[in-house]
Design goal:
Number of helices: 9
Largest sheet: none
Radius of gyration: 23 Å
Order of helices and strands: HHHHHHHHH
Number of domains: 3
Strand content: under 5%
Helix content: 55-70%
Mean pLDDT: 76
Length: 183
Amino acid sequence: MSITHYKSQQQTLSIRVSDSLREFLELAREFITDGRGEVVSISDVTKLLLESARQDRLDFRLEAAEVRQSPTSSLLHIRRKWEQKQALSRAEWVFLARYVQVACEEPSGNTRPPSPDSFIAVLEALLVVRSLRTGRGGGLDRFNRGNLDVPVATVFSERQFDPELLPHAIDDLIQDLRQGRPR
């Protein structure tokens, strides 16, 4: 029998888990054991749950990782969905946001820097997407503030959160860009 006929060996992953996660896995093991009529190991349960999460796309990060594997075709797919006015998945938004962020960072080599109009369009899109968020979203506002280089003192204190401060800071950035003032 040639070597290509052998089943490939599965890789072993060793992780440390908290007591509460271990208890959850034990309960899942008992449930699965009762349903199958055979004893199942904690490792088997963990593998089953991970495979199920991937197949059922229970976590957008798994889908985002798959989208990143072929970026060109993924961007083309996203564009076609946009042209057909179809909704993008959360993973597609995350993927697209990363490319927008990279495009807005300092240009390298012979590439021209993005125009002020491009930055304005990105900032206006950020305001629209932000308005669709449910909940306060302070963590995302802090993240956006860091990417926009808005001084912390003017926008947030650790104890107090004003959801209108970031939009005002973005509006100021847009006005500066429209008037040709560098930031």
